[in-house]
Write a structure and sequence with these properties.
Order of helices and strands: HHHHHHHH
Oligomer: single chain
Largest sheet: none
Radius of gyration: 21 Å
Structural class: mainly alpha
Length: 194
Amino acid sequence: MCCGTKRLVEIQCPPDCSWLASAREHPPAVAVRQQQRDVGLLVQFLRDFSRRQSQLFLLIATFLVRYEPPELQPLFDEDVAEAAGALAATYETESRGVIYEHRPASVPAERLSTALKQVLAAAGKGAGSAFDRDAAVVLRRVQDAVRDAHTVDPANRRAFLAVLGRVISKAGDSDAAASDADQDAPEPSRLIVP
């Protein structure tokens, strides 16, 4: 019982522990259901998207997971929805030929909007008005996704960000671990033997 409840929290398990390996291979049913729910929500968020729109959504989601707000100013889902709505409105008016920058009302949303706008500008460099339309569609979907995440977990002010963190950070962490392993691996010999 002690091993199961305090493993890797209070007890420093050795890497070759058979109980630890078994726990990693067979997660509890609660964790499996949570993963299924999170992936289901992510699939729902990506429904009816083109390839470029899906890539844009994942770019924005990855940015949100890695975004670090200033000290003592946490980022909540309302800020994400507000920033996405303001940027979407900006792209929509720009696609109609009017240059007007919509601004979020809250300071955290304004900071997020500014940072996200730079990411989208870099991604859409040279892509033209089609990119602006796709960005507006994706940002409106981010707004809807925040609302959908709150219907699943209404008490959590970071429900959408939590779903993204559980789904996206795992893929990013494994990619980082793989690149670290590639850097540590010795370079293969370039000697050609007949």
